[in-house]
Amino acid sequence: MKRRTLVVLALGAFVTTLDNTIVAAGAPSIARDLGLAVEALPWIALGYMLPFAGLLPVAGALVDRWGRRPALTGALLVFGFGAAAGGLAGSAWLLVAARVLQGVAAAFLVPGLLSLLRTNLDARGRTAGAAVWTACLAAALALGPALGGVLSEYWGWPWIFYVNLPFVAAMLALLPGTVPPGRDAGTRAPPLPAMVLVTASLVLVTTALAEPRWRIPLLAAGIASGVAFLVRERRARDRLVPAALTGNPVFLGSLGLQLLWGLGISGIFFFTPLLHQEFLGLGPAGAGLPLVLVAVAVVAATPLVPAAAARHGPLRTVAAGLVVVGAGLLALAAVNHLPALWPRVPGMVLIGAGSAFTVPMTSHALDVVARRYSGTASGLLTAARELSSALGVAMIGAVLTAVRAIRLEAGVPAGAALAGGYTAGLLAAAGLTFAGALLAVRIPGTRPAETSSPRDKRAVP
Question: What sign does the CA torsion over 360, 110, 163, 393 have?
Answer without folding.
Answer: negative
